[in-house]
Amino acid sequence: MPKYCPICNRSSDEFKFYGEFCEVCTKERVSKELPNTVRVDKCRVCKRIRLGNSFVEESKASIEDVLRHELTHYEVSVKEYNENTNVAIAEIVTQIGGERLVLEKRINIKYNKTICRQCSRKLGGYFEAVFQLRGNAEKVERFKESVRNFFEANGEFITREEKANGGVDIYLSSKKLAANYLSMFRVEFVRSFTLHTVKNGKKLYRNTYSIHL
């Protein structure tokens, strides 16, 4: 004997049922429980978006990660994402009465303008180490680009460059990464230290590396 949906009177002979309700009404109910809009922080400088404690490039994949983080009780995959309209078409999967229910949901992404930690530090001129590069101009330029690529690949940056007699000084955002670079590429250097500040009774130093190429 067929069942009839108490909302729309559809029959179980024509539609799949989830408990007492037809698939159409069940999808409408679940869709109403889902947000129509999700708000995301977006850096006004680099245009990356916040994902957890990090900022990442805006893309279909990163929007999918944002929605998964937001809709923790559902399986989420983004079928389409329009960066011009900031609209995602998401496939949402949930369980109703032990049965799998799949539906599509149009979700608007609203961006809150902010500034990420990296851009804030860069704009503020933050640095922890200095490479003083001296020697052949072509070698200095190649070395500088190698350092830039290494830092950017590891989420850090060159704060600024200053021309100096016989070379260039480059100011780096991370002294730990600066040391890692020199160790990895076995670069010879002379190191000196400058007291930067005292924080919680601990002296913090900036490292300067003199490198002849």
Largest sheet: 5 strands, mixed
Beta-sheet strand percentage? Answer: 35-45%
Low-confidence segments, ≥5 residues, pLDDT <50? none
Output mean pLDDT: 93
**Run of helices and strands:** EEHEEEHEEEHEHEEHEE
Distance between the termini: 87 Å
Strand order of the largest sheet: 10-11-9-13-12
Class based on secondary structure composition and strand pairing? alpha+beta
In which range does the helix fraction lie?
25-40%
Would you report the number of β strands? 13
The gyration radius over C-alpha positions equals 27 Å
Tell me, briefly, the overall form: rod-shaped
Quickly count the helices: 5
Describe this structure in words.
This protein is 26% helix and 43% strand. By secondary structure, the protein is of the alpha+beta class. A 5-stranded mixed sheet has the order 10-11-9-13-12, covered by helices on one side. A 4-stranded mixed sheet has the order 3-8-7-6. Strands 1-2 form a two-stranded antiparallel sheet. Strand 7 and strand 8 (99-114) form a beta hairpin. The termini are far apart. The model has no long low-confidence stretch (mean pLDDT 93).
